[in-house]
Amino acid sequence: MPRVSQDHLDARRRQILDGSRSCFARFGYEGATVRRLEEATGLSRGAIFHHFKDKESLFLALAEDDAARMADVVAEQGLVQVMRNLLQEPAGAEARALGADWLGTRLEVSRRLRTDHEFRERWAQRSEALTAATRARLQWQHQSGNLRDDVDVDVLTAYLELVLEGLVSHLAMGLPDRHLVSVLDVVEESVRRHRGR
């Protein structure tokens, strides 16, 4: 029997994550049945669970993948850019991962964090990447002289994360988003250093 290449295994894993992301976003964790996951990924349950132990492991891997993608955006452009991506019309798989489908996954993570102690413990081990990326980006901005210096970087990190959670909640409730781009402009401006004041 020929061995399957690592590239093939990685591509199959990506196919499962991308398909399941839209399934979890559309139906929620409980509603994302194995049958629906099969339809969304185009793969059999055997193929899906060859790569992931169970549905929870798949969901955690997906949430971790989304957090890693967000951390990459944060490292390059900052956490406010992640928020801006949520407000843009997504085009293509990469944009969807940081757009509407990501929002659905993020809402499921938030719900499960409130209701599932075991999930909360497992997620805590994975969620630090985004905080670390945000803190590192802010420290770099501080060293570059672009960040306000009257507020501790850890406080600014917590502030931006709180804004992100508020934005996610706002979008989840279906509230109007017509002024949110301008709100994010204010948020971005609020962490910048203003010379000459």
UniProtKB/TrEMBL annotation:
Residues 10-70 form the HTH tetR-type domain. It comes from the Bacteria. Keywords: DNA-binding, Transcription, Transcription regulation. The keyword Lipoprotein does not apply. It comes from Saccharopolyspora ipomoeae. Gene3D superfamilies: Tetracycline Repressor, domain 2. Residues 33-52 bind DNA. This is Helix-turn-helix domain-containing protein. The keyword RNA-binding does not apply. The lineage of its organism: Bacteria, Bacillati, Actinomycetota, Actinomycetes, Pseudonocardiales.
